[in-house]
């Protein structure tokens, strides 16, 4: 690797493939990357993990037309330019970046197959500045109506009616209470305190990735249950 830049040598070492055009899955997590280099030459790439790096620009991803799953969590991304060319992209993790507004997500509207998006990860304390707006999820869903999963919560399919009901109840409670606009709390760090600690061998393995996904799923389920219970309690209180 040359000064945080992806090289062919790095791609071959991390994938075990001699021909980089044959790479289908690539894990470049925590490699100190700041430049995507020759990543676009991995024309058959389908799954790419670029989490925990120092990336700002994504335009060199534009050549990865077969990419379906992309993890960009824990970087310094403010602009998603380049992602609009990934026509087969189904899932993207952007938690722990510097995305400041809903408009920064507009290029994702070109992705008809995008079903899962993560901007906030409470389990790892990863977020984005736009997530400090309490209405950001609704704004994201208005912009990207084809999403099925947002921040680990299922939006469409089973459970979608419950999600819609929760949103309607929250809106009704806000109007009923006629509360004034609350000041936003001080944003948490864009990455967790242990972000720069070196990962263990287990965390670098595929088993570590599976463990992270399971923990995220369990955390999301718990959050959904807690949120539903809280809304029901508020509803009961408002009807007394």
Detailed description of the structure:
It is built from five helices and seven strands. The chain has 240 residues and is α/β, with parallel strands linked by helices. Strands 1-2-3-4-5-6-7 form a seven-stranded mixed beta sheet. α2 (136-143) links the parallel β5 (116-118) and β6 (149-150). Mean pLDDT is 82; it is low at 157-162, 183-188 and 200-205.
What can be said about this structure in brief?
This protein is of the alpha/beta class and 240 residues long. Helices cover 30% and strands 8% of the residues.
Corresponding CATH architecture of the domain at 8-156:
Alpha-Beta Horseshoe
Counting helices, strands and paired strands, the structural category is: alpha/beta
Q: Based on DSSP secondary structure assignment, what is the total number of beta strands?
A: 7
CATH class of the domain at 8-156: Alpha Beta
Q: What order do the helices and strands follow?
A: HEEEEEHEEHHH
What is the rounded Rg?
Answer: 19 Å
The residue-averaged pLDDT reads 82
CATH homologous superfamily descriptor of the domain at 8-156: Ribonuclease Inhibitor
Q: State the distance separating the first and last CA atoms.
A: 65 Å
CATH topology of the domain at 8-156: Leucine-rich repeat, LRR (right-handed beta-alpha superhelix)
